[in-house]
Amino acid sequence: MFICSPVFEEGRSPYYLQLYQYMKKEIVEGRLSATEKLPSIRGLSTHLHVSKNTVEAAYQQLLAEGYIESQPKKGYFVSQVGPSLFKTIQTKEENKFRFNPSINVQTQLPYDFHYGSIERSAFPMKQWKKWSNLAYEMEMGATQAYGEAQGEQSLREEIANYLLQARGINSTAGQIYITSGTQQSISLLCQSILASNQQVAFEEPGYNEARLMFKSHHFSIQPISLEHDGLNVKELNQTQAKIVYTTPSHQFPCGMIMPIKKRLELIQWANETGGIVIEDDYDGEYRYRGKPIPALRSLSDEIIYLGTFSKMLLPSLRISFAVLPPRMLEKLQTLNQTVPRVIQNTMSLFMKEGDWERHVRRMKTLYQKKHDLLIHSIEEHLGESVKIVGSDSGLHLLLEVHSNDTEQQLIDKAAENGVKVYPTHLYWSDPRKVHQKLIMIGFGNIENEKINKGILKLQEAWFGLREDG
């Protein structure tokens, strides 16, 4: 019998990722045997004292990569792949992508340009605690044990009001479904709205965790190349895909913004083919030149819109949402709500009393300063040695580095000099087709005073000391 006993480390990486890595290691090293039955999601979450979402996300990742299999009405089982084969593959991969043994990937480095982290010190704790206390009082007097499956009505109404003002989206509370993250939103669509075993057109490169979620639900991925202004719609028209996933307001990870002409072409594709467009608007509020671009969903009620609060508040709160076209509402399966009602009610009060809009304005100002400082530092210290990609929006940018070093060599050299930067090859469906050396630089949670010094350290690591330095 499998005894699962991972040691979770707070702040190292998401719990689901730590659990996935632990179980993958158990399989690769043969401690989990082929065909062995794994604990149920509920049972393992109870045993480890983590949420069911954490266990499900770990299982979905293992499922997507083929380490485990799902058998209807029976559960999850270890795939029939022997550890000896893993060892053969590992040896080849280690020779191909060899890390500097002196560098621990998880080591805390002085200058960490991590994407996905936010400025935690700016979280409005005082206001959040105020509304959280009131939400707990409401919870004590509630008669409905688990709340509404679609999400609390009050929060869905506040989201509908906000989307109309901020993103130009006209929707009702009845069209909104509260989820615990974008991946869960996609999972919900795959289980309820989208016909299984279909082909999904997907930006290449694109958000890898969304790609994996589609794959875990047995959808095939059709990569669609990017042009300077986003998804190649002509290429999309040449495929058999009836679903397309896109990030038009800030393409992930390359950062371009889809112009109105191409947006209309994408809507025309959907109208002519009966296709479904899924818009992931993961950080549409952050735009540093001009006003935020209205969402693609503002142009057509037939778009499925995915939104999240993670880039403005704390990712650990796990509040996201999906806005569905009216014609799809009947297909929606009423699944159990995964966001605790008390957190939903706290968020609802936070929005209703105007604290959300004030927080959004503060965060835009804060990140604008960080963004401008980062751009200035790159131009000053790296100059023509790099090309900045996608600098007008969001909480990250890419550096195309003019160097003979590989992506991993650039990352290792940076780490040796105390700077943590991140790869981008994982955002391609086939990393072997990556021809550019693009390094991801996030700036959400790095202190302002470290930005300039960190970029200077990058310059030293990649190109050596400057003559004037």
Summed up:
Helices cover 39% and strands 14% of the residues. With 469 residues, it is α/β, with parallel strands linked by helices. It has 3 domains: 15-96, Winged helix-like DNA-binding domain superfamily/Winged helix DNA-binding domain (Arc Repressor Mutant, subunit A), CATH 1.10.10; 111-118 and 359-463, Aspartate Aminotransferase, domain 1 (Alpha-Beta Complex), CATH 3.90.1150; 125-353, Aspartate Aminotransferase, domain 2 (3-Layer(aba) Sandwich).
What does this structure look like?
The strands form four sheets. An eight-stranded mixed beta sheet has the order 4-11-10-9-8-5-6-7. The chain folds into three domains: 15-96, Winged helix-like DNA-binding domain superfamily/Winged helix DNA-binding domain (Arc Repressor Mutant, subunit A), CATH 1.10.10; 111-118 and 359-463, Aspartate Aminotransferase, domain 1, CATH 3.90.1150; 125-353, Type I PLP-dependent aspartate aminotransferase-like (Major domain) (Aspartate Aminotransferase, domain 2, 3-Layer(aba) Sandwich), CATH 3.40.640. Helix 2 packs across helix 3, helix 6 packs across helix 11 (341-352) and helix 13 crosses helix 14. The protein has 469 residues and is α/β, with parallel strands linked by helices. 39% of the residues lie in helices and 14% in strands. The chain has 14 helices and 15 strands. Keywords: Aminotransferase, DNA-binding, Pyridoxal phosphate, Transcription, Transcription regulation, Transferase.
